[in-house]
From TrEMBL, chain A:
Signal peptide from the UniProt entry: none
Subcellular location: Cell membrane; Membrane
Membrane topology (UniProt): Multi-pass membrane protein
Name this protein carries in UniProt: ABC transmembrane type-1 domain-containing protein
Record keyword Iron present: no
PROSITE patterns assigned to the protein according to its UniProt record, in alphabetical order: ABC_TM1
Entry similarity comment: Belongs to the binding-protein-dependent transport system permease family.
Lineage of the organism: Bacteria, Bacillati, Bacillota, Bacilli, Bacillales
Alphabetical list of Gene3D superfamilies matching this protein: MetI-like (1.10.3720.10)
Pfam families, alphabetized: BPD_transp_1
Transmembrane stretches, start-end: 12-34, 70-94, 101-124, 144-169, 190-212, 245-265, 296-316, 351-373, 385-403, 516-541
UniProtKB/TrEMBL annotation, chain B:
SUPFAM superfamilies hit by this protein: MOP-like, P-loop containing nucleoside triphosphate hydrolases
Keywords recorded for this protein, A-Z: ATP-binding, Nucleotide-binding, Transport
Cited Gene3D superfamilies: 2.40.50.100, P-loop containing nucleotide triphosphate hydrolases
PROSITE patterns found in the cross-reference section: ABC_TRANSPORTER_1, ABC_TRANSPORTER_2
Species, as recorded: Paenibacillus vini
Pfam families: ABC_tran, TOBE_2
Domain ABC transporter intervals: 5-240
Protein name from the UniProt record: Polyamine ABC transporter ATP-binding protein
Top-rank lineage group of the source organism: Bacteria
Length: 551, 353
């Protein structure tokens, strides 16, 4: 006790900061989740019971949604992992041109709004689709449903798996494979007996990552799910449409449980199984495959996939200038005129709220990372668990949680900008925490002690030493927060009001109304805003970097 | 202004994995005079760093008090203690150049610009760093980084200067150079220095006073010569240099010398504080032994290595292995492996514990 008091006297700001951070996490993450858990047991008339769970598990519509979601997630994750593995293998083992292009494609889904691929799938493969109608002459082609979802989700999520797998494959020491070949194994035998077993943890990791993404996906099922209902969509409809909050909450609890299980699997089971010690620098130089059928096959596959992805992204801006896709293909600016008159408010609101949320999420993420890595205090473990938990919570769960938690006193925030900003922050902060933690773990703690030793107070150490050293993590956190906030939908769709409208919600409304052109125009504008913002942020980093002369 | 440092009954307990208290430092009492260069010496894990970090204020003190001069500093936060530290890893700020690294503490003090610049200039001069003032830390060699770390600590003109194994990351040659340089600068400025190392030759060559630590406790405090020639325990004798031990019993005194009966006869050793009948251990340094031709029941050479200035032997004697060093070896007087030798002890160089 006296030791704690001593510490308090030494760093009076720290405990205050810790309490504030904890309070934020409790109010905006734990409390809403608690409200979901509570509501899942309470019926509309106030009686306590398991009716909610009964409805979910009894074989009705909600149960179907659950099964559907799992089927979709398994299909998408399998397909994505296979494609990603081929990409990653090619990237790490084969000497092919255009590697920059492959890398660029891997970044696309991270910055793209959730609808782009779904929209172009409609434009390409829908009833009026370029391929289905114009090329193949099919009448009444139907992209809506499981097959459409698998296609769209795979194209959207395989790059995430690619990033995981290419990191892993690059860290496999070439000497292991050389040893195998040296002992007489052929290339194929080496691949099967060395490379593949070594990549199993990475494959499992990639699979689980995509699995969770698919499970939590809201945008794609809403746009091209058709009659194929999924959990995320059902939660929304239960909560917003039919006002059966108990069933919605119960379903959210089930979804949350599944994602947390997967998250734990990923971090503890897969993490332990990893044989590859990642030292950060690739060990030795790998001799690349330079010729032969393998090279040509892999290269062709990657080129075709890249072309497909690019085509899907390119189609949306094109579609935004077409009067009525497939029926009246004349060029027009009408959609943009519409967006700039009716949609002006959504654009302005989204930008304003995202700009408010970005620095909050960025700073909070770095502060939490700092507390986790560097400070010892009561409740640290809880802070760690809560902030990492927030990575695993699907957006729709946050959404329904916020409705339940903030629509009555003392925290009547429904309809305010605060609640949307909070959702933006909670959704985008975990990535910042992760990169902050990674960056801080690289920094020798005695550098901070040196600053203290030379007279710097706790806050001075943070601003003059820690922050400059994790600057790049901080800025990438900012970029991530901005992008995530601009393109957020699954959580905030529950929270929009007459006072605050969002671009993503407007796009969804347009899609539902069948105005694909307008939706495409919105998407295009959203992408443009983000490109401009990214350039500005980069310039800002460069400008700050010039002053600091980063080493 | 150099300050004295006093540690009164200092202990430090950490919680181990099972939640039990375990003491890293216990009951340390120490007085370090103004301008003194004192070394904490001991094997890895004996609590040197922990002691130093308590002085700096990075670790809370479990029990006891620390004084700078007459002032108790236990309650003073680390950023307001009048001491600066040179870290093992140097801990230079990687985002600041040499000049700004050195200026960091002065800026926090809000020192006036002209005064600050003149102080930095003079420390750059002392440390021979003028040519590197605009370099970033990662553009410096290990030795230069070391100098910057020292300059950054010195420029603060602290009451006490702390070092935690500052030379352990340098190559052997540079270590010797920096050793002399640190000592020279310390003497020139007259600052109080507390220096942690596990390298006994470093401790011996730099310090006014060596504090030998073992398992969180002080084993012995003394000048380098005292520590080497009159160790208080087997541990100290063994840790500082090489020592051979011979068990014996005190028979009495004669001409102020102790008569100690050992397996190799009676030795006459200058020492007091023992009485007849005491069981003692005689500490014999390798250079206190000379070899002569002998018979096989006396000693047999097991190893004989020519080192240039010396010939190093291992001799099986009385059932144990003796380390023996002969200076200025000449061909005719070198004993080869398997030779029978007798051992003669320079009695003035022996010590009893
Ligand atoms: N933060 C800590 N938590 C727990 N035990 C520690 C901590 N720091 C040091 N120790 C323990 O205290 C003992 C002394 O450590 P240290 O002072 O670093 O030794 P030295 O510097 O002499 O090598 C060691 O056994 C070490 O494991
Ligand atoms: Mg140490």
């Amino acid at each position: 006790m006296s030791a704690m008091f001593k510490r308090f006297k030494r760093e009076p700001l720290l405990p205050i900061l810790i309490v504030l951070v904890m309070l934020c996490l409790l109010v905006f993450i734990v409390y809403p989740l608690f409200q979901i858990a509570k509501s899942s047991f309470v019926g509309s008339t106030g009686e306590v019971g398991l009716q909610g769970y009964q409805r979910v598990l009894s074989g009705g519509g909600l149960f179907h949604a659950l099964v559907n979601s799992l089927v979709l997630a398994v299909l998408t994750a399998t397909l994505s992992t296979v494609i990603a593995y081929v990409f990653a293998y090619t990237f790490a083992y084969v000497k092919v041109p255009f590697k920059k292009l492959f890398n660029g494609i891997a970044i696309l889904p991270v910055i793209s709004p959730p609808f782009v691929i779904a929209l172009s799938a409609m434009l390409l493969l829908g009833k009026q689709g370029l391929i289905t109608k114009n090329l193949l002459g099919l009448e009444n082609a139907n992209i809506y449903g499981l097959h459409g979802l698998v296609l769209v989700q795979t194209l959207s999520f395989f790059p995430i798996a690619f990033l995981t797998l290419s990191g892993l494959l690059r860290s496999i020491s070439p000497s292991l494979e050389e040893a195998s070949q040296n002992m007489g194994a052929s290339r194929l035998k080496t691949f099967i007996s060395v490379t593949l077993p070594l990549s199993v943890p990475g494959i499992a990791n990639a699979f689980l990552l995509v699995f969770v993404q698919s499970l939590a996906d809201f945008g794609n099922p809403m746009t091209i799910g058709g009659n194929y209902s999924t959990v995320a969509r059902e939660i929304y409809l239960q909560a917003v449409g039919s006002y059966n909050l108990q069933a919605g909450a119960a379903l959210a609890m089930v979804l949350l449980t599944v994602t947390i299980i997967v998250y734990i699997l990923q971090n503890f089971w897969v993490g332990k199984k990893s044989y590859v010690t990642v030292t950060g620098k690739p060990t030795g130089q790998r001799r690349m495959i330079e010729s032969g059928a393998i090279k040509h096959g892999l290269f062709t596959f990657c080129m075709i996939m890249s072309f497909v992805v690019i085509a899907f992204y390119a189609l949306v801006p094109i579609g935004s200038f077409i009067k009525l896709w497939g029926i009246n293909n004349s060029l027009t600016l009408d959609h943009y005129k519409y967006v700039f008159s009716i949609g002006q408010k959504a654009i302005k609101d989204t930008l304003t709220l995202a700009i408010v949320a970005t620095p909050i999420a960025g700073l909070l993420g770095m502060i939490i990372a700092f507390l986790i890595v560097r400070k010892r205090f009561f409740g640290k473990r809880a802070l760690e668990v809560i902030s990492m938990l927030s990575i695993a919570v699907p957006g729709t769960v946050i959404g329904i949680g916020y409705i339940l938690a903030f629509n009555k006193a003392p925290l009547a925030l429904t309809g305010t900008g605060i609640i949307i900003v909070a959702a933006f922050v909670v959704r985008s902060m975990p990535v910042g925490i992760r990169s902050g933690v990674a960056a801080l773990q690289q920094i020798d703690p005695s550098i901070e002690e040196a600053a203290t030793n030379l007279g710097a107070s706790g806050s001075k150490v943070f601003t003059s030493v820690v922050l400059p050293l994790i600057k790049s993590a901080f800025f990438s956190g900012l970029v991530n927060s901005f992008v995530k906030s601009m393109t957020a939908m699954s959580a905030v769709i529950f929270l929009i009001s007459a006072k605050y409208n969002l671009i993503t919600a407007s796009i969804l409304a347009q899609v539902e109304a069948g105005r694909i052109g307008v939706a495409s125009a919105y998407c295009t504008i959203l992408i443009l805003i983000m490109i401009v913002a990214l350039i500005l942020l980069n310039l800002l980093v460069r400008w700050m970097g010039g002053k600091e002369r980063s080493a | 202004m150099a300050k004295s440092v006093t540690l009164k009954n200092i202990s430090k307990a950490f919680m181990n994995d099972r939640g039990e208290k375990s003491y890293a430092v216990s009951g340390v009492n120490l007085e370090i005079g103004e301008g003194e260069f004192v070394t904490l010496l001991g094997p890895s894990g004996c609590g040197k760093t922990t002691t130093l970090r308590m002085i700096a204020g990075f670790e809370d003190i479990t029990e006891g008090h620390i004084y700078f001069g007459n002032e108790a500093v236990d309650q003073i936060p680390p950023n307001r203690r009048d001491c600066t530290m040179v870290f093992q890893s140097y801990a230079l700020f990687p985002h600041l150049n040499v000049f700004d690294n050195i200026a960091y503490g002065l800026k926090i003090k809000k020192m006036g610009k002209s005064e600050m610049i003149s102080k930095i200039e003079s420390v750059l001069d002392i440390m021979n760093l003028q040519d590197y003032r605009d370099r970033m830390p990662n553009q410096l060699s290990g030795g230069q980084q070391q100098r910057v770390a020292l300059a950054r600590a010195l420029v603060m003109e602290p009451g006490v200067l702390l070092f935690d194994e500052p030379l352990s990351n340098l190559d052997a040659k540079l270590r010797l150079v920096m050793r002399d340089e640190i000592r020279r600068i310390q003497q020139q400025i007259g600052i109080t220095a507390v220096y942690v190392t596990h390298d006994q030759s470093e401790a011996m060559s730099m310090s006014d006073k060596v504090i030998v630590m073992n398992k969180g406790k002080i084993e012995q405090v003394g000048t380098p010569m005292e520590i080497y020639q009159r160790p208080k325990s087997k541990f100290v004798a063994d840790f500082i240099g090489t020592a051979n031990f011979l068990e014996g019993t005190v028979k009495g005194t004669e001409d102020g010398r102790l008569l100690v009966e050992t397996a190799s006869g009676v030795l006459r050793i200058r020492r007091d504080g023992f009485k007849a009948g005491d069981r003692v251990t005689v500490v014999i340094r390798p250079e206190a032994v000379t070899l002569a031709k002998g018979t096989s029941h006396q000693g047999i050479v097991q190893k004989s290595v020519f080192m240039g200035q010396t010939q190093e032997y291992e001799v099986l004697f009385e059932g144990q292995m003796f380390q023996i060093t002969e200076h200025n070896p000449i061909q005719e007087k070198v004993y080869s492996v398997g030779s029978s030798v007798s051992l003669q002890f320079a009695e003035d160089a022996l010590h009893v514990i």
